[in-house]
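Researcher: Batch entry, complex prediction.
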Amino acid sequence: MATKKCCNGDGEREHYAALDEFIASCSKGRDALIPVLHRAQNIFGYLPVPVQQHVAAAMGLPVSEVYGVVSFYHYFTMQPRGRHTINVCLGTACYVRGAKKVVEALCDELKIRMGETTPDRRFSLMTQRCFGACGLAPVLMIDDDVHGRVTPRKIAAILARYE
Amino acid sequence: MAKPRTVVMVPVDADTVAIGARDVKNRFAEEIGRRGLASEISVLEVGSFGPVDAGVIAAVQPDGVVYGGLTPDRVDRIVEEHFVKGRACREWLLSGEHPLPDPRATDSRHTQYAGRIVLDNCGRINPENIDEYIANDGYFALGKALSDMTPAAVVEDVKKSGLRGRGGAGFPTGLKWGFCASETGPEKYVVCNADEGEPGTFKDRLIMEGDPHKVLEGMALCGYAIGASKGYIYIRGEYKLSIERLRQAIAAARAYGLLGNNILDSGFTFDIDIKIGAGAYVCGEETALIESMEGKRGLPRLKPPFPAQQGFRNKPTNVNNVETLANIPAIVQRGADWFRGVGAANMPGTKVYTILGHVRRPGLIEVPGGVTLRDIIDDYAGGMKHGNFKMAQLGGTAGDLLGEEMLDVPLNYDALEKVGHVLGSGAILIMNETIGVCDFLHACMRFFAHESCGNCNPCRNGLRWLSAITARLKAGTGYPGDIEIMEEIATVLKTAAFCPLGQSPAGPITSALRYFKPEIEKGIDHSSARPKPDHTARALATFAG
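Model: Structure tokens for the complex:
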């Protein structure tokens, strides 16, 4: 998940070096594009246009095609995210068990709308299709942690664990 | 190794890991060790054996006792009461009958697990230990096929077994294999579709987490049958534990020479790699999945040519669902006739379902083909939990809504087709009278509107309209004529959408109108003073948002 932030200067050069190393280790051809983007997002935290241009050049692909893939898949994002990403499952099983109330409570608590990031960059709030963790419905994920049987009342306590 | 007197099995799958199953397991081992009982009682990490709503659970065999809602600090009491004082600790006993595996039994067919084909090892063996899979006849079918059977004989067996694709569409598996096998050319691919994205469906995840080698063996058998030497598992990125266990299983199988070059000295070479998706529901459709494997946007391809002719890298490719592939080892090992003897004549074998919603025991079940919805609710899921049965959605969000009158229709492809329904992916969502039909439909339609890839007009626009209309029906502000518009859009979707993503949402709409029309009609506001509906594109954009 997007926990690292894109930064300037030396850090950025290291990021690009790490990405180039990964690209070199992949098989040639565009099959590797999605794994490369996964890695790039992991390194930079998100996929801004310069990173996409870099990937395109390194893999010999038009930038438009890289952009097409980035914008198609939910996992990839062009916006910097907060330090923690909250993904709320809105699958039907979660929905019938009250996911909507959980979303409302999160919006109230964080004072942002779905898809936004808090001004202090602590949290980004997203929804996601079914995680397949329906036994724990309603479910939300913060970074890689799954929180099950969430109720509006539990939200403040869950969020407090993430700085 | 001496067999322990007693075993404690802690199912560790993605759900239970999230709520601390590994800590509970470790605590059991600690507490048992502290009391000097480690030589008599062993603690096993297994996959799920069914219940999904009971927190961290632990089963004690041969006592047949299941505890639920466990936390590490409750373990001490249970160990003291159960193993030292010798009586079950009532406080955290899980009520109801659960089909329990017994890892000490050498033959699963003689336990309560009888009748399971796909899940016979789930919850019974340690999924991270290849030896346990092998000790339970694992890779026997592969050995048999490589030494005694021609590839054509394997295809023939699968054809005769009557196995149909378990991913949702129900296409005969043997036929599909036959298409691919008849293609010439040295480069072919086997793809395991593990992009399980249908909301409410997670059977494939539990299969991969509970018995990953079965999937690998099924893929290797498929490779042998169709003449492919490379397999890919396309899996959702969110399925982290599945990915971890599959990677581990692939490495173990390679180390034993069960994957790789010249498997079992037969001259057959087959290897498997994992491809991780990036989150797009449409990639569950096999041609979109192939596009995504090639590093492109996951847009479905025009068929024909079918993947069997031109699939991955334009080479013949056979795509099967996880559950379908997990059926293959048993079919090859025990024969097509045996498989046909399980389940119904028109649906041999079993079906794995995840049953959720307002039932007493939601969870993962495997039932013989052709049992009814009523049987599943009453016998396998323990009956309704709150209130009365109102409706069921069969097969995930794209599935049909069934009313009470459908409770006694056998759940198999043909019988359902006769009454105008489809079986779908294996999710069963049971709902009581607290769920409003319009509210539920809106949740489904909003999901599809969001997941539409935007490639074809019926899907891109039709689903947005359905989302908007169901939203106003749910709010009680529907316009007269809305129901007719919904029917019309459903027809257009079904007949004109490019791929199953666009076609299948017609199912919930038409079936809801079939069983719950009076309730939907209540969402219409007949007062004449209202302004006309705003059907401009801008209004639509705000509706579906």
